[in-house]
């Protein structure tokens, strides 16, 4: 009986351990692209694959620019954005809008659930299908001998 209890407990832990990450982001999406239209209550974003996605802005929508608080008034057509969304009663609702997110030649996109997945452009995670998001860049670390001479 003790062996059965151990096997059952292990199976339960594995089952919940495998499904918990999938449930953590259920109903949430990340949209990267350029603003094609902006009003007080709505954004239209042209994604990197050319689709137009409409997102509703609510009183709870948070705006950031360079990781600092920003306002909806700073969102203008043509600006690059990353929008975190949740499903609302009228479609997608923006939970956070990151303004002015630049896409560079050395940009790295990763999956929020699978950080080992790294791509050079936005797309879908090959493991779970979530949208890849622009990875946080760590401050450049100086090379051991950078910044001082050796008396040449």
Description of the structure:
The chain has 152 residues and is an alpha+beta fold. It has a domain at 28-103: OB fold (Dihydrolipoamide Acetyltransferase, E2P) (Beta Barrel), CATH 2.40.50.320. The chain contains one helix and ten strands, in the order αββββββββββ. It has one helix at residues 2-24, and strands at residues 28-38, 42-47, 52-56, 62-65, 68-69, 80-88, 91-99, 109-110, 118-119, 133-134. The strands form two sheets. It has a seven-stranded mixed β-sheet with strand order 3-2-1-6-7-4-5, with no helix packed on it. A three-stranded antiparallel β-sheet has the order 9-8-10, with no helix packed on it. The longest helix has 23 residues, at 2-24. Residues 7-25 and 139-148 have low confidence and may be disordered.
List the helices and strands and how they pair.
Layout: H1 2-24, E1 28-38, E2 42-47, E3 52-56, E4 62-65, E5 68-69, E6 80-88, E7 91-99, E8 109-110, E9 118-119, E10 133-134
Parallel strand pairs: 4-7
Antiparallel strand pairs: 1-2, 1-6, 2-3, 4-5, 6-7, 8-9, 8-10
